[in-house]
Amino acid sequence: MDYSQKKIKELVAEHYVFASVLYYLGIEYYEFEEDSLEKVCKHKGLDCKKVIAELEQIQENQEIDNLKLLGLPIDLIVEYLKHAHYLFIKKDLPFLVKMINRLQSATQTYFGVQKDLQEIFPLFVEDFVHHIYEEEDTLFDYILSLKKINDERLNPSGFFYKHQKFNIQKFAMDHEVHDDEMKGIRYIMEQFPPESEGELNFNVLYAALERFERKLMIHAQIENEVLFPKALMLEKQVRRNFDDLIKLN
Ligand SMILES: [Fe+2]
Ligand SMILES: [Fe+2]
């Protein structure tokens, strides 16, 4: 199918996810709804073939195989998760915020949804960003230090003294109980009325939220099923080595 001659409006209506891809590439679809993709690419100085390749790529399933991750060293898994955090904050959230802020519905039902979303979403973003920073500043930092100790690049004595109260088991348990972010997103999604033809922006937003929720779920799954088990093993190992060292002295 030749995407280049299609109107932006048609492309997005057929695949809601294209709205976010175009957005990352610098095309705000709602500004060019009636233009063909080729025309907009020319206007924006983008290579149309590359844009189409990006659109096609997003349709393929690119889910990461957790089993593959399980085989990686723990510091790489932490880097992978940090990169995912970065993408959530730099790519997904700005698009969602933009879409929510520019909602404008003439109909009563949608107007109510719009008002709710504009109130609730900033609260969600605040909690979400807090969760990410807490993870990076405490858990990830702790795990990376354990790895360094295990590789003999860091002295263990000061480390255990500094982190007497922290342990991975507790963090892991809290993490599993609190799937707050997902609850927040689901709550937001429940506010939507059923899909409506005249409300392209709402439909695009709903699809983007659905996709985001799925990403968050996979992310939490990697943390719960890959990161925590590996980190617990590493913590045990490092502690055991440290205790042996103390006994020797
Ligand atoms: Fe995370
Ligand atoms: Fe998390």
From TrEMBL:
InterPro entries linked to this entry: RIC_family
Location in or out of the cell: Cytoplasm
GO cellular component: cytoplasm
Primary location class: cytoplasm
Name of the featured protein: Iron-sulfur cluster repair di-iron protein
Native organism: Marivirga atlantica
